[in-house]
Structure formats: C-alpha cells, structure tokens
Design brief:
By secondary structure, the chain is α+β, with helices and mostly antiparallel strands. Helices cover 47% and strands 16% of the residues. The protein has 9 helices and 9 strands. α1 packs across α3 and α6 packs parallel to α8. The two termini are 14 Å apart.
C-alpha cells in the first residue's frame, strides 16, 4: 500500500557524473582491463562546443550512444542498489523505487520512512557528486486514503506528480467503487510537443499537401503510441485537434491568398487526406 510519494529531480545529472566513482563501479563487475582503459579514454576525450575544445573532467558526453548506458550504471550503484539493500530492507512498511534513466519516484507506506529517505537521499547524492534540485523534490500524500485523510484535516484534493511525460493523480473508477491512480499527459510536455509541431508545420508548409499530411501522421502515430493509454483519451484527441488548427493556419499562409475555408479544409482536404485517429494502445485499468 502506497501512501506517500517522494518526487525527486537530479540537478544536471549527466554533467556531474564522477569519473573516479564510475570507473570503480565498472571495475566491480568487469575484469577486462582493456575495456576499462577504453572507457577512461572515452570519458577524458573532451567535447566540442561552438568550435572550441573543452576538457571533460566529470560528466558523460551527451549525444554519444555509450553515455546513457554509463549513466544508468552510475545510478544503479548510487541509487538502485542502495535503495534495495540499505533502504527497503529496513522499512517497516512497503517501499518501492521506479526509475527511468535519471528520472525516478519512490513510494512509501509510512510517512516517517519517506521523510527519513528524503534526508538520506540528499546525503547519499552528495557523496557521489550529485545534487537534488530541492525546489523540484518533495513528499506528496498520495494513494487510496489520501483524499479522505486530507478532507478530515480540512485540506484540498491530493496533489499530483509528473513522471515520464505523464501527470499521476488520485481518482476512482467510474462507479466510485474503488481507488484508481489515473494518468494524463503532462501539461508542460504537451505544450512543448505542440510548440515543436507548430514550428515543423510552419517550416514545411510549402511541402505538397499529401506528403505533408503523411509526415504529420507519422508524428501523430508516435504521439498516440506513447500517450494513448487509459484515461488519457481526451488529451490525445485534444492534441489532434490542435494539430488540425495548426495545419489550417499555416496552410493558409503559404501565399497571400487563403488556400482553404473551414469547410474546404475539414470536408475537403481532410476527407481526401485524413489525419490518423487517436487510439488507446495500452490499458492501465486493473482491479
């Protein structure tokens, strides 16, 4: 049973990976000395920024295929293994860690254990050259009883938290028979994706319409495959409607004369070249 969430954010993670600790972690499981030498050279190779060479005394060079792998190894020892061995085993209540790359949340049954973990996490990261973004790190009351408990204390609805592009919030099933943790697309991520789509359509509006819509459908398919989950149908459909409006706006700015009226756009163009419809690809519903 989860009652509290520790939502954490690492400040400048990829730029602050300590090379000395990383090599120690690699040597723990890899006996091949030649491989270790190659990794050392990779870490010390430096980077080019605006045509200038910069030494890399710490951090993993971003944009390189090995960088996320090395970063995951680093956090495996700094966070994952430590949580399983030193934190979870000593908790009286349930405790879970969910991590993807440098994004993670921790779930606890007991408040005092969540608070103790928060303090220990700061100390743990300092030891390995990492720092929590304290303004983005907090403890949230969350779970089956959070709504009732907060109401008894005269507080509002349970707060939400964002993770991997989704906002997680407390709710119930349609008949209000049991608690459900629901998700929807994060507003911040959605604004970013809309901005990116706007710039792409603006810059490619002179492309032949059939080819343009084919490319847009490819982008929509990727959006649906990630965000097309239970409870997020409205958000996905809203994104499609925004894309339609952006198309109508920028296709009418290809020349000094308007290319389409609303009727010609919706009942003409989109009938001939339809946009991909939203789908629910992953069901998160369970009882």
């Amino acid at each position: 049973m989860v009652n509290y969430i520790v939502e954490a954010d690492i400040k400048g993670f990829f730029n602050n990976v300590n090379h000395e600790w990383l090599i120690k972690f690699l040597e723990h499981d890899i006996a091949d000395k030649n491989f270790i030498v190659i990794i050392k050279k990779f870490l010390q190779a430096g980077i080019m920024e605006d045509g200038k060479y910069l030494d890399s005394e710490q951090g993993t060079p971003q944009g390189n295929g090995a960088s996320p792998i090395l970063a995951n190894i680093y956090l495996h020892y700094v966070l994952d293994n430590w949580f399983d061995v030193k934190v979870k085993r000593k908790c009286n209540g349930e405790a879970y860690l969910i991590r993807y790359c440098d994004d993670f949340v921790c779930c606890f049954q007991n408040k005092w254990e969540a608070e103790e973990f928060y303090q220990r996490l700061i100390e743990r990261f300092e030891k390995f050259g990492l720092e929590l973004a304290l303004e983005k790190t907090k403890i949230l009351e969350f779970g089956r009883f959070s709504r009732r408990n907060r109401a008894n204390r005269g507080l509002g609805k349970p707060k939400t938290f964002d993770f991997l592009g989704f906002t997680f919030y407390c709710s119930e099933n349609g008949k209000k028979e049991f608690f459900r943790c629901k998700v929807k697309a994060s507003k911040k991520k959605l604004r970013s994706k809309i901005k990116t789509m706007k710039e792409w359509i603006k810059n490619n509006r002179i492309m032949p319409v059939g080819q343009l819509i084919k490319k847009i459908n490819q982008k929509l398919r990727g959006h649906y495959q990630y965000y097309g989950v239970t409870d997020n149908t409205r958000s996905v459909k809203s994104y499609q409607n925004v894309v339609k409006w952006l198309m109508f706006k920028w296709l009418n700015r290809r020349s000094q004369r308007r290319s389409y009226t609303l009727d010609a756009f919706y009942n003409g163009l989109l009938k001939t070249f339809p946009l991909l419809e939203p789908t629910t690809n992953v069901s998160l519903f369970y009882r």
